[in-house]
Amino acid sequence: MGRPPCCDKIGVKKGPWTPEEDIMLVSFIQEHGPGNWRSVPSSTGLLRCSKSCRLRWTNYLRPGIKRGNFTDHEEKMIIHLQALLGNRWAAIASYLPQRTDNDIKNYWNTHMKKKLKKIQNQDGVSNSVSEPKGQWERRLQTDIHLAKQALCEALSLDKSSSSLTVTDSSKPYQTQELSSPTTYASSAENIAKLLENWMKKSPKVLKSHQTNSDMAANSSSSTDAAHSAAATPENQGFDSLFSFNSSSNSSQSVDENANLTPETSLFRDENMVVEVNHHHHDDQNNNQVPLSLLEKWLFDEGAVQGHEDLINMSLAETGVGLF
DNA sequence: AAAACATGCAACCGCGTTTCA
DNA sequence: TTGAAACGCGGTTGCATGTTT
Fold first, then answer.
1. Looking at A82-96, A170-184, A219-233, which range is the least confident one?
2. CB environment A139-153: b (16+ within 10 A), e (fewer)
3. Positive or negative CA dihedral for A10, A12, A16, A21?
4. Which of A222, A267, A280, A321 has the greatest number of CB atoms lying within 10 Å of its CB?
5. What is the pLDDT of residues A101-110, one digit of tens each?
6. Which residue has the least CA–C1' distance to nucleotide C14?
7. A135-159 and A72-85 helices cross at what angle (nearest 10)?
8. Is the CB of A37 less than 7 A from some atom of nucleic acid strand C?
């Protein structure tokens, strides 16, 4: 008597997303912002469950995502953080703002496991990466540090009069701004790039998409639009479609987003932003009572150090010593 | 050239947690 | 207070692509 899968309803489409669907989803998010996923399928007409929409956005369409080619630094971060936190991919991803948890998980399961196994075989020592001794203690300590950091940043948020810039305390290395329609621009670039790649594939791909019965309703017009748009170097069709605020960064490629701006990093945790956006004043009013005690606790042990310090501490503690 | 096998990654599934009526 | 719905996360799968035989 398990829970029925949310996507088992009749008429809910599964499988790879088409460019048309991506456009529909991004268009909706441009207007309404991310979050409130349950209303997305009905509002957009997408034949997808809300879960699928959220996943597509967070793992693929969200601006600021860097794909492929993990750098040495990122790789080391992942190894150390995995040793420290275990398979808490979302937590690990919070230290790598341009990477999604799914991406990191995939990278770990494919590249890293292999690499580490190789290294372990070379050393002839069973390493502690998978489940190091005392991991629970380290995990607990890390969580405490993160919690302190979150509180610290919440306090500074409350104290600052600025309502434009907030920091998601659970997402290190990031700054965030209030959500506005203009911040969704780079999604268009993501899609444009996707479409380019999509069109580069053999025509059979296109054909397979077109023959999909689920697309029958709107294939004639939208597929043509995608085709013509992707067929031109400038993706003109989509330029017009995504003409909103494309001037500020339209020349950037997805990879160039590697230098994450506050604008793009906004999407690291959309719900949090929306939350802040809507309830910032409420927070200021409602959270004051317990903070004095928390402040005391925080500052008794000294100011919470920066994220770098946390990482360094964690890395020193892990003693993985792979590099 | 083609079959078999390996790899990488997007997407799905199940379940614990949170939210809300 | 409670139960249903939604959210979020980690594990897993399926398929397209690349490599080897």
1. A219-233
2. eebbeebbebbbbbb
3. positive
4. A267
5. 998 998 888 8
6. A15
7. 110
8. yes
Cβ atoms of residues A112 and A75 within 8 Å: yes
- Spell out the residues 6+ positions from residue A190 whose beta carbon is closer than 8 angstroms to its own: A60, A61, A62, A63, A65, A254
Is the Cβ atom of A51 within 7 Å of strand B at any atom?
yes
**Is residue A120 over pLDDT 70?**
no
Q: Is the CB of A181 under 7 A from strand B?
A: no
Asked whether the beta carbons of A139 and A84 are under 8 A apart, the reply is yes
**Of residues 107 to 126 in chain A, which lie within 7 A of strand C by their beta carbon?**
109
Q: pLDDT tens digits, residue range A239-270?
A: 333 333 333 333 333 333 333 333 333 333 33
Q: Is A75 a residue whose pLDDT tops 50?
A: yes
Distances (CA, A) of A26 to A21, A91, A141, A219: 9, 26, 39, 18
Q: How far apart are CA A132 and CA A98, in angstroms?
A: 27
* Residue A36: count of CB within 10 angstroms of its CB: 14
